[in-house]
UniProtKB/TrEMBL annotation:
This is Ste24 endopeptidase. Residues 865-1051 form the Peptidase M48 domain. Residues 752-823 form the DYW domain. PROSITE patterns: PPR (PS51375). NCBIfam families: PPR. GO terms for molecular function: metalloendopeptidase activity; RNA binding; zinc ion binding. Its cofactor is Zn(2+). The lineage of its organism: Eukaryota, Viridiplantae, Streptophyta, Embryophyta, Tracheophyta. It comes from Miscanthus lutarioriparius. One of its GO terms (biological process) is proteolysis.
């Protein structure tokens, strides 16, 4: 019989029975429990219940790890610590940590938990103090600290922390590396090799994070390199790369990535389609977006709400309201984002009723009232405009206690401004405790919208004094204000500010600047702004199309529209509005209908009232009154005063009394206090000789108390506004103005001007009608400007009412007469025998000699030879809208440049090498622009002729006797031509100091002294000369000096510039 050997369990129980000191202990041992462990747990629970968590931690360290009791106790201890942290009692939690032994297994758990609590409460200072004082740290500790850094300096601090972690020998894990790479602004290029060296290069998660970091920081080439080097790519890889390409505008590459993703069989996700929709939204490609929509439906029958919202946003930005509504109706699930997108789209497309119904639906369905799109609804109320709805929404905001929200206050200012209640908008602005730049911009924009342009400018100054920097939207509104006032000086100051502040790089600011120049009569500067913009979107193209439309250049407007389509941009309703307006200004009825149908049927856009108004106005200008009725029948809107006003204006052109009466009666009902309809109908009757009808309309005006607005014109000279009314006698210079006008009328009579007396709408004799036309306000303003500005200076006159037809004709003729270059050139051509002299001096042999001499001794500038000079010439030629001539560089120690043009030959410019060495690139471009100005103004052949004639007249047999007679005329013409071309240089370089610097260096500069010259000192010298030459003796000496000069004196040219 074998002896009994107890098992291990039996020995354990036996030993515990042997150590049992009480019957209770013995019973616990028999039941399978350890009395010592039980007493330890009781002690632990007592410590935790009494809040002595540090002591409880010490007890926990004595328990066997991985034991059930240990895990249960650990869980209870962490629950208590979590309670301290989550309730914000971080000081108490920190006290527990300080009492805990550093070598305790719980130390790092507690440290990281408290750091996480600091992160939740955004207490960075406490976290830094705790982190610095910590005796031990692990990877999680460092990771939490990296994630807490503030956004403004996270990048550099995160990299610094990561390096400190490596120096202390702590090995980072996947989470640490992902965290540091995801920190905005981190130096991902520096971290990339470190991460690879640490052995994370093969991790798909880390590679995806690297790729995404490169994309977010705009390093698309580096991201592309990571993408190509990855051994394995997943859905996240492709999604990140597509989003990166989309941000950089590489829409084609993003689409290629999607195609490659499908070829390689990589699964798509909701984020894939969301990224893809971001791409096509940037492209505004409706057709492609519909294809992606179809793919998404097939791949995801359940129709994820996140992607559906992205689709809604896409259709909204493509202005495809039909697709948008259909998708919204078919969505199985909608959230507040879905409704917000729909309401915003309805607001933009002027579907106020639909927007309001959607808002009511949101309230009925129980969406969180604080998340309702109040700002969008206020925008709808402003766009309608519907003050009653706006006030109801305002009342709801007061009940919900949301009026203190900044975005709500700004939306209220905007709504009240658009509804014409500017005083209410000012009141809300005044009560705002925190006036941000957006608040100021909202009120400034409101003032501009309500015609309070002077007040808008004053608010802008107040905003600057308050220490706030205007943003792109602010500058845009102020530029609209300056364009409305025709104050080009303020507009140019804003241009300088935008350039200095870096806002010129913005599409938004550039487009507003373009629009401002166009409305201030500076089309060339508007086009130059467009050409200089580094980036263009649909707003930019709309602005340039609108600019051409304002100037009646329909062909250029349509050309720009075609160019926009070639660039892959989709037109919006504003684009079509500008194109239709351009067609209308030029009477292109067929083209207008073509683009109207294109908008409706190809792009599926619902026309606004303004589109119908443009079409009706165009048809009316063309006299197609039968087609007007058809368009009116198709129009889904009620009668609109703008449309009937267009019809009435068309009736005025064609004298259609019957339809004019109908249109006027409509307007009398819709806008009974507006004098325009009464005046136009009265004028139509008067022009037709129906004086009885005209008198009847005027009686109706008197009975209703309607007063006609007086016509005013104003002009800006040296940043001061001068205003005139018809037959105005208030200006101190009125006698001089009338005298100059009489002189102009004499010139106009010689050139065949015949006044249109039908524009004088009074029952008086013909002589009185002629007299009344003479002193219309715009003619007085123009004449005043002619007297007070240098010859050749462009004049911009603004009016509050449209000009009469006779004024249009008169202004065109005055513009032609006062053009100094044309007059002087005509005087040259009128000199008897001059053509014969020209043939002798500019015969075939002379032409050949001149051409061969320059080509044989100079270097031709081209894209492949001296490309920098070629670029300067090309830019200047583009800005002056002229074909670039050939440019030659010639070795010569005398700084000079000249233009040669022979009849029937391509002109060319010659620049001496000494001039290239003397001037900066910008100054050299000013010289090239000056020479191009000669060609632009048709000086070329006459300039060549004049230069040769003054040198060669004495050497040609028989012509010496006429040289003295010719010199004075020729030199006078040459000096005038030089001043004109200085303005061409100014137009190109847009900086008077650059042009003056050129004149200064030509007067007394050399390469070694050029840096020491001072433009301001030279201008002071010019003023001193002008003052000295102003007395009779000085005047005589100056004339004697300049009589035989082909160029004006440099100091006098500097003052002119």
């Amino acid at each position: 019989m074998r002896p009994f050997k107890p098992t291990a369990g039996a020995r354990s129980i036996a030993s515990r029975l042997a150590g049992a000191t009480t019957p209770a202990d013995a019973r616990m041992v028999k039941a399978g429990s350890d009395p010592a462990t039980y007493r330890l747990e009781l002690h632990f629970n007592h410590l935790v219940s009494s809040g002595r968590l540090a002591a409880a931690g010490k007890v926990l360290d004595q328990m066997p790890e991985k034991n059930t009791l240990y895990l249960r106790s650990l869980n209870r201890l962490e629950l208590h610590l979590n309670y301290l942290v989550s309730s914000g009692r971080l000081a108490a939690a920190r006290k527990v940590l300080d009492q805990m032994p550093e070598k305790s297994t719980l130390y790092l758990r507690f440290l990281n938990r408290i750091l996480w609590g600091c992160s939740r409460s955004c207490d960075l200072a406490a976290a830094k103090a705790l982190f610095s004082a910590a005796a031990r740290r692990n990877a999680k500790t460092w990771t939490i600290m990296m994630s807490m850094l503030p956004a403004d300096d996270r990048g550099s601090d995160a990299v610094s922390l990561f390096r400190d972690m490596l120096r202390e020998g702590e090995a980072p894990d996947d989470v640490t590396v992902t965290t540091v790479l995801n920190v905005p602004g981190c130096d991902v290029g520096t971290l990339h090799p470190v991460v690879t060296k640490l052995g994370f290069g093969a991790s798909v998660v880390i590679c995806n994070t690297l790729l995404d970091a490169y994309c977010k920081q705009g390093f698309i080439a580096a991201a592309r390199r990571v993408f190509l080097e990855m051994p394995h790519r997943d859905t996240i890889t492709y999604n990140a790369m597509m989003m990166g390409c989309s941000r950089e505008g590489l829409h084609g590459e993003a689409l290629e990535l999607f195609a490659a993703m499908r070829r390689e069989g990589v699964d798509t996700s909701h984020f894939t389609f969301s990224s893809l929709l971001t791409v096509v939204t940037g492209m505004v490609d409706l057709y492609l977006g519909r294809q992606i929509h179809g793919l998404f439906v097939r791949a995801n029958p359940s129709r994820n709400v996140f992607v559906n919202n992205a689709l809604l946003d896409f259709y909204s930005k493509c202005d495809s309201l039909g697709d948008l509504k259909q998708l919204f109706d078919e969505m199985p699930e909608r959230d507040n984002v879905s409704y917000n997108v729909m309401i915003s789209a309805c607001s933009w497309n002027r579907c106020g009723g639909m927007a309001l119904q959607l808002f009511r639906d949101m309230q009925t369905l129980g969406f969180d009232r604080r998340a309702l799109p109040y700002a969008s609804l206020l925008s709808v109320a402003g766009a309608l405009p519907h003050i009653k709805i706006g006030r109801q929404i305002h009342a709801q905001l007061i009940l919900r206690g949301l009026t203190s929200e900044d975005f709500v206050g700004n939306a209220l200012i905007d709504m009240y401004s658009k509804c014409g209640m500017l005083d209410a908008a000012k009141t809300i602005f005044a009560y705002k405790s925190d006036k941000t730049a957006i608040s100021w911009t909202a009120l400034i924009t409101g003032c501009v919208q309500n015609g309070q342009n002077e007040e808008a400018l004053q608010l802008f100054c107040d905003m600057r004094r308050a220490g706030l920097s205007p943003d792109r939207a602010t500058c845009s509104s102020i530029m609209k204000s300056s364009s409305s006032l025709a104050v080009i000086g303020i507009g140019r100051q804003l241009h300088a500010y935008l350039t200095k502040s870096g806002h010129m790089l913005s599409v938004f600011s550039g487009s507003a600047l373009l629009d401002m120049y166009a409305k201030c009569g500076c089309l060339d500067e508007a086009i130059r702004t467009f050409n200089e913009m580094p980036e263009k979107n649909s707003i930019t193209w709309n602005a340039v199309i609108s600019a051409y439309a304002q100037y009646g250049q329909a062909k250029n407007a349509i050309r720009m529209f075609d160019s926009m389509l070639h660039c892959g941009l989709c037109p919006d309703p504003v684009t079509f509005l500008s194109v239709l307006a351009a067609c209308g200004h030029n009477g292109l009825a067929e083209e207008c209908m073509k683009y109207f149908d294109l908008m409706r049927y190809y792009y599926s856009m619902s026309p606004w009232k303004e589109h119908y108004s443009c079409v009706i106005d165009t048809l009316g200008r063309a006299g197609c009154f039968d087609k007007i009725q058809k368009v009116l029948d198709e129009m889904p809107f009620e009668d609109d005063p703008i449309i009937w006003s267009s019809i009435l204006h068309s009736c005025r052109i064609y004298g259609n009394q019957d339809l004019a009466t109908v249109a006027a009666e409509k307007l009398f009902t819709m806008v009974p206090t507006d004098a325009t309809a009464y005046v136009i109908l009265s004028n139509i009757y008067a022009k037709a000789g129906n004086w009885e009808g005209a008198a009847r309309v005027k009686k109706i005006m008197r009975d209703r108390g309607v007063k006609k607005e007086s016509g005013n014109s104003w002009v800006e000279i040296k940043q001061k506004i001068y205003m005139f009314s018809s037959n105005d006698h208030t200006n101190p210079m009125i006698d001089e103005i009338k005298e100059e006008l009489e002189r102009l009328y004499e010139e106009m009579d010689k050139q065949g001007y015949e006044p249109d007396t039908s524009c004088a709408l009074h029952m008086v004799d013909n002589k009185e009608k002629l007299e009344s036309l003479k002193y219309h306000s715009e003619r007085l303003a123009i004449t005043f400007a002619l007297i007070n500005t240098p010859p050749g200076t462009p004049i911009t006159v603004m009016k509050n009412l449209s000009s009469c037809l006779d004024c249009h004709a008169a202004i065109k003729m005055i513009s032609k007469i006062v053009n100094r270059d044309i007059i002087n050139t005509l005087l040259l051509r009128a000199i008897p025998g001059l053509n014969d002299i020209g043939k002798a001096l500019l015969g075939p042999v002379s032409e050949q000699v001149m051409v061969l001499q320059n080509i044989g001794t100079s270097v031709l500038v081209s894209p492949n030879q001296l490309p920098d000079l070629h670029q300067l010439l090309a830019e200047a030629a583009t800005l002056l809208n002229i074909e670039a001539p050939d440019l030659y560089i010639r070795q010569n120690p005398v700084p000079n440049a000249y233009t040669l043009a022979i009849n029937g030959k391509k002109p060319f410019i010659v620049v001496h090498t000494s001039l290239v060495e003397l001037l900066t690139p910008k100054e050299l471009q000013a010289v090239l622009a000056h020479e191009l100005g000669h060609l632009k103004c048709d000086h070329g052949v006459w300039l060549t002729f004049a230069n040769i004639l003054t040198m060669g007249a004495y050497t040609v047999p028989g012509f010496g006797m006429v040289a003295g007679f010719l010199e004075e005329q020729l030199y006078r013409w040459l000096r005038a031509a030089e001043l004109t071309c200085d303005r061409a240089a100014l137009l190109v370089v847009q900086d008077p100091k650059v042009v003056i610097s050129v004149l200064m260096k030509l007067a007394g500069g050399c390469p070694s002294l050029a840096d020491q010259l001072n433009v301001d000192a030279f201008l002071e010298q010019a003023r001193s000369y002008d003052k000295a030459a102003s007395n009779p003796v000085g005047w005589y000496i100056r004339n004697a000096q300049t009589r035989e000069l082909s160029h004006p004196l440099p100091v006098m040219r500097a003052l002119r510039d």
